[in-house]
Amino acid sequence: MKYDIDSYLFVLFGPSGVGKSTILRYFESRLGAESAPKYTTRPSRNTEEDAQDFIYCSSDNFPTEAILVFESYGHMFGIQLDAIAESFRKGKSHVIIVGQSDDVKKLLSIYGDKVVVIFVFCDIPILRDRILGTSNLQRANRWTAICEELSNIYSQLGCVNFVINNSNSLERTFEQVDTIISKFNNPSNSSMPACKDIEFQ
Known about the structure:
Layout (H helix, E strand, L loop, with lengths): L8 E5 L6 H12 L6 E3 L7 H6 E3 L10 E6 L2 E6 H9 L4 E4 L3 H11 L3 E7 L2 H9 L4 H4 L2 H9 L10 E4 L4 H14 L12 E3 L3
Parallel strand pairs: 1-6, 1-7, 2-3, 7-8, 8-9
Antiparallel strand pairs: 2-5, 4-5
Helix pairs in contact: 1-8
């Protein structure tokens, strides 16, 4: 089932490893939202997901037109603004992942009320196991930077509309996403909710 709602830009952010990409894929399948690969200088992990989500380039040939650039974990990323505009032109929502709340604010300055900000998190012991238990050494070496990011996370929550707790099963995570989507499927909802914590215990 695809929900019949107005076009929105769903923006997912949160620490590395909390499951943002999984939730992005669910928005695509459940809502019919579109996404577009981001440009990045980050080395490829040679996975199918990386090939789908990123266009790899060096800092020397990084595009500059119709791109919103941000930095995350020492690498450049570029959001294709033309792809967002094309989704809206077709009457479709668009979903993206960004690094921090400063990147969210840039998108808010461009798209205003079209932006729905969703902060994704999971319990720290679960996150630690996901990161340090990975076979990807590059990602495991990022744990120190993630811990530093977590220590400053509360200062970034002022722009958030919804929070997803991805500590439990995917079924419960997707229930939270469906609850968020349902709020935009109700014609009586004429304004964006304030920071809202939607959790299923």
